[in-house]
Specification:
- The protein has 53 residues and is mainly α.
- It has two helices and no strands.
- The protein is elongated and about 40 Å long.
- The chain starts with a helix and ends with a helix.
């Protein structure tokens, strides 16, 4: 379960950076949720991983 949470954290962090790049590429004209939503899931996954340690 810990390894799954860690893997999900890494995936969501990568998606956060991709989303942030997409928002910056479009000069902020698209919704910032492309970066924020994966960030929230990444933080939740990291918190779950740290709780299980």
């Amino acid at each position: 379960m810990k390894k799954t949470a860690l893997a999900l954290s890494v995936i969501f962090i990568i998606l956060t950076f991709i989303g942030a790049g997409y928002v910056l590429y479009n000069r902020g004209q698209v919704n910032a949720g492309y970066a924020i939503i994966p960030l929230v899931f990444a933080l939740a996954s990291i918190a779950f991983y740290r709780n299980r340690k």
